[in-house]
Amino acid sequence: MAKTAVSSSEQSHPHRIHAKRSSHQTLTVFCDFDGPIVDVSDRYYSTYQQGLDEVQTVYQAEGITLPLHTLSKTQFWQMKQERTPDPEIALRSGLRGQQIELFLQRVRQIVNQPDLLHQDQLQPGVRGALSLLHAQGVRLFLVTLRCQQQAEQLLSQHNLTHFFSGIHGANDDQAAYFNQADHKTRLLETAIESWQANTFSATPYNAASSAWMIGDTEADILAGQATGIPTIALTCGIRSQTYLQRFQPTKIHTDLFTAVHYLMQSKQKAA
């Protein structure tokens, strides 16, 4: 795992990138997994539905039928994209008091169960985006709060592993659900360390300056900003454009395919 958490000060971020960009430098992309590459909306919604059903079952065993109101997937996902707290989602679904805590506990237990992970699907255009990066000689690193074993398994299933120069994931299978920015920053710092260790240059920071962080949450944006890497926020994942704009990413795009084309066009203009 990465080193201990660091502050936002310059001294606390030894991997902060200061050098100016140079058009001859090889482009490097650090990319998140859930959201940019994988659509997790079906799994998260199924988890929500299953959580409600199990709370209802517990209370029905005591002779109580709860007046639940199950949100549609569209309603649920819009709330997740605006980062509506899970207790509020439970409240709007008809749960009250201890029912909410029971629901939250159950959701955390089942969200990463193997029998739900199969619901994750590749985002449209991902294979084309990764192929383009590979064809252009871009070094690509996966930096994800998803359990590393799960990420590696899904990439292998879809024959995408060869596109990545490195995969940096979490050891905790709950990390992706909680999506903590400091955890993402430590993972990104570890990825930068690994990359710089294999960058054969007398000025590794100059090489590192030609890098981007792509993700779909505030954790990705904040991690990129903490390490001095410009960021591209994607709206195809679990945060809306309105929410992402609060964190002032360098760019906002709809999906990985459009983001990659933007990077390639910018690279050609700089050449």
Strand order, largest beta sheet: 5-4-1-6-7-8
Distance between the termini: 37 Å
* CATH class (first level) name of the largest domain: Alpha Beta
Uncertain spans, ≥5 residues at pLDDT below 50?
1-15, 17-24, 201-208
Order of helices and strands: EEHHHHHEHEHEHHHEHEHEH
The name of the CATH topology of the largest domain is: Rossmann fold
**What CATH architecture label of the largest domain applies?**
3-Layer(aba) Sandwich
The tally of structural domains comes to: 2
Description of the molecule:
The protein is of the alpha/beta class and 271 residues long. It has two domains: 28-40 and 121-270, HAD superfamily/HAD-like (Rossmann fold, 3-Layer(aba) Sandwich), CATH 3.40.50; 41-117. Helices cover 47% and strands 13% of the residues. The protein contains 13 helices and eight strands. It has helices spanning 41-60, 73-81, 86-92, 98-110, 114-117, 126-135, 148-157, 175-178, 181-197, 204-208, 218-226, 241-245, 256-270, and strands spanning 28-31, 38-39, 121-122, 139-147, 166-170, 211-215, 231-234, 251-253. α12 (241-245) links the parallel β7 (231-234) and β8 (251-253). α1 packs across α4 (98-110). The radius of gyration is 20 Å and the shape is elongated.
